[in-house]
Amino acid sequence: MTNSALLVMDVQRDIVALVDDGSGYLPRLRGAIDGARAAGVPVIHVVLGLRPGDPGVGPRNKAMGAIVRAGLCTEGTPGAAIHDAVAPRRGEVVVTKRRGSAFSGSDLDLVLRARGIDSLVLTGIATSGVVLSTLWHAADLDFGLTVLADGCLDRDPEVHRMLTGKLFPRCADVVTVEEWVGAVAPL
């Protein structure tokens, strides 16, 4: 039997403001979080935390450089905070990462291993960013993986469809929030 955790990644005010298309993403994600809590599945929040003018981002890193230049997800700013719609409860772990993957520059692996977690349920913004990066990193670390397709969001709907429909199923179960919540709901 697996010991799972739900990862809610990069659902921060700055990122939601850029990507949320009004499709009901936040309420749907909140349903996954509520379902996990009801089933006793730990919810772990992952945030991108950059230092002002981040000296750790080199000039060749296009994606992270654009985030730094835009002043997004800078530690201590209101935009770097987790969006109120999916805010962590007291006692829930919040992990700060420094790059794309939830494992990059964070203590996520340590937190998971200390809790005996061997299976991850991935959600977050963006499908082509943190979700993709974390999926491959977690697969290399031998975690069991599930992706909640509608618990992820991307600026480009076609990229989202390609990743969740074709690429992610190669190493993860890809299901909807409703399907997953129905499978983990207490009897």
UniProtKB/TrEMBL annotation:
InterPro entries: Isochorismatase-like_dom, Isochorismatase-like_hydrls, Isochorismatase-like_sf. Residues 4-179 form the Isochorismatase-like domain. It comes from the Bacteria. The keyword Hydrolase applies. Keywords: Hydrolase. PANTHER family: ISOCHORISMATASE HYDROLASE, PEROXYUREIDOACRYLATE/UREIDOACRYLATE AMIDOHYDROLASE-RELATED. This is Cysteine hydrolase.
